[in-house]
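Sharing in case it's useful to others searching the archive later.

Someone asked me privately for the predicted structure of NAD(P)-dependent oxidoreductase, so I'm posting the question and my answer publicly. Question first, with the sequence:
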Amino acid sequence: MLGLNRQLVQLEKQGKEIKVGLIGCGQMGRGMISQIENMKGMRVAATADLQTDIIQNAYMTAGVDPQHIVTTNEIEAAEKALHEGNVVATTDVSMVIALPGIDVIVDATGIPNLGAEIAWKTIMNKKHIVMLNVEADITVGPLLHQMAEASSVVYTGSAGDEPGCIMELHDFADALGFDIVALGKGKNNPLNYEANPDSAAAEAKEKGSSPKMLASFQDGTKTMVEMNAVANATGFLPDKAGMHGPSGTVKELPDIFRLQEDGGILQNKKIVDYVNGVAPGVFAIISSEKEEVNHEMQYLKMGPGPNYILFRPYHLTSLETPLSVARAYLNQSATIAPWHGIQAETVATAKKDLQPGDRLDGIGGFTVYGTLYSQEESVAANAFPIGLVDPNVVVKRAVKKGDILTYDDIEQEKESTIWKLRSLQAKSF
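And my answer, the predicted structure tokens:
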């Protein structure tokens, strides 16, 4: 089989292209539009966002002639625009998903409930879906993956996102028959469980990012969510609730991720974790019982063993997403998906003392952060998943700072799409 680059060139030579429908034109979406404009055989043909001027600017920045940008919420006008080689800007998410000329949908909203709805509607419309929404994936991804397979379409996470990059290392090592001890990522900033949009505001302004999004990185939720996705894809588990999160250099990691009886920190092998000090990289710790393999690894300067590290020092986030688009369309395969079902759960943990009547304000907010548990531990505790947190969820009894929230601690005023899908998933698995 040809590589993706050659397949895309071949597609363009045939006068064809993969038409992408993008939902969400924030930082990741805008970068993806520009990247795809450089590529062969692919185009972001339609984009939906709350503000069409942002979409128009994204296309123009990518080099699209303003005369070829059609702004419309009418499906007939949009389909005509695509047929004439133009691109579409719209506020209507459902229209983009329903457009017959669109081949693959990319969710770049970052909102769990919206992402779940986008994925569900996309699968119902018999289109491939690429999720830049790990929060939705860890909450209802197993069900969406099952639905996609039944509909003969691809449900996939994104290349360039850290779970996708870790999965590539896993698949490389697994295909070669190595024993995989640990999978992980670097954390970009010191862990601060109390981080919130106010405390993150100044840094967020400097970086041009959302304070709430930055707070979700600082309080550890994003790290927990990302490694949750890896757990569901591989069957690997956190070695303890919240993972170990050691500090170390790349060179030190093979010794850190050894069993405790061998001088390391692990109780078990085949675990997921994160490390302070190696960001923005991702890694796999591997080993082999074969004498000749170890001899060769040492000859190749991979270290003295018995553990070795595969390390990738970068991930290009949404700039790599087109690779997942192409893989889904051309090869009908996923970059990463919850192949092992629900292996772990990122549960809501109180950032402060919560009182009856308090509303949960979402990921990166003022009320909760995420902690990764194995699914077995989560079920035993009746723990409440972080992906279901939104302002419709109200605390009905006091929860102390640092304690996890359970289903008994909360009530929901209005059932959202992600709650409905979660209920279906519970019946299916």
